[in-house]
Write a structure and sequence with these properties.
This is Rhodanese-like domain-containing protein. It comes from Oceanithermus profundus. It holds the Pfam family Rhodanese. Keywords: Signal. Helix content is 45%, strand content 11%. It is of the alpha/beta class. The chain has one domain: 3-Layer(aba) Sandwich (Oxidized Rhodanese, domain 1), CATH 3.40.250.10. Strands 1-5-4-2-3 form a 5-stranded parallel sheet. The protein is globular and about 50 Å long.
């Protein structure tokens, strides 16, 4: 019986029954890879705190904080920032600016901001910057936060 089971498993494995499914590229996947290619040529969309301050002063972007409420309470926010957690961003599209409005996005250290940047780019925003090092880099640079 044991030999039969082993032989049957080998037969199934060689006929492709356990083979992986065929990978198919979706429209969403194509859009994401195009964004990745674009931002990879632009320093991944990162902007230093100093350049972000200039961006705010000269361009007046929509400022988006994608951290959690606990984080907002702990460290404050960049003045004028709209607070929408990354995991709820898709539920607050009506709160986002028109597609031609520049956006400065940030989180605590940069990773969630990068996810948000990618999502915003896929939505069609062209001028999105992610604060390199997040709010922690902003605070370490000595820039103002609102509590």
């Amino acid at each position: 019986m044991k030999k039969f089971l082993i032989a049957a498993l080998l037969a199934f494995a060689t006929t492709g029954v356990f083979a992986q499914a065929t990978v198919t590229e979706t429209a969403a996947a194509k859009a994401v890879i195009e964004v990745i290619k674009e931002v990879s040529t632009q320093s991944w969309g990162f902007i230093t705190p100093e350049k972000a301050l200039d961006f705010i002063d000269n361009v007046n972007p929509f400022i988006l904080d994608v951290r959690t409420p606990k984080e907002w309470d702990e460290t404050g926010v960049i003045p004028g920032a709209v607070k929408i957690t990354l995991t709820e961003l898709d539920q607050h599209l009506a709160e986002l600016p028109p597609l031609n409005k520049p956006i400065l996005v940030y989180c605590k250290a940069g990773a969630r901001g990068q996810y948000a940047l990618t999502y915003l780019k896929v939505l069609g925003y062209k001028n999105v910057k992610n604060l390199k090092g997040g709010i922690m880099a902003w605070i370490n640079a000595g820039f103002e936060v609102a509590k």
